[in-house]
Amino acid sequence: MIREIRNAYLAAGADILETNTFNATIIAMADYQMEALSAEINYEAARLARACADEWTAKTPDRPR
Predict the structure, then answer these.
(1) Which of 9, 41, 55, 63 has the smallest C-beta neighbourhood within 10 Å, fewest atoms?
(2) What's the pLDDT tens digit per position in 7-44?
(3) Using CA atoms, how far apart are residues 8 and 23, in angstroms rounded to an integer?
(4) How confident is the model at residue 52 (pLDDT cuts 50, 70, 90)?
(5) Three-state SS across the chain?
(6) Is the distance from CB of 50 to CB of 5 less than 8 angstroms?
(7) Which residues, other chains included, contact 52 with Cβ-Cβ below 8 Å and sequence gap of 6+?
(8) What is the distance between the alpha carbons of residues 9 and 28, in angstroms, rounded to a whole number?
C-alpha cells in the first residue's frame, strides 16, 4: 500500500518523497512495546522510498528523483 501511495505521488509529478517515519522513533514506539523495531521500520521506509524514486528515475532519466 505504501508503494502505491508513493508511486501515485511520483506519477502526479513529485520529485521528492518523505519516508513517513515520524512516529517510528524509539519514544513513540515505546507506547506499543516496539522500541526494538524502530531502526528496522525506519530503514525499510527509507529503502522503499528510495526504490520507488529509482524506478521513476529509470523511466525518465532526465528527471532524477
Answers:
(1) 63
(2) 999 999 999 999 989 999 999 999 999 999 999 999 99
(3) 22
(4) very high
(5) CHHHHHHHHHHCCCCCCCCCCCCCCHHHHHCCCCHHHHHHHHHHHHHHHHHHHHHHHHHCCCCCC
(6) no
(7) 3, 6, 7, 10, 17
(8) 26
Cell representation of residue 20: 513517513
One-letter amino acid of 27: I
Question: pTM for the full model?
Answer: 0.86
CB 15 within 8 A of CB 63: yes
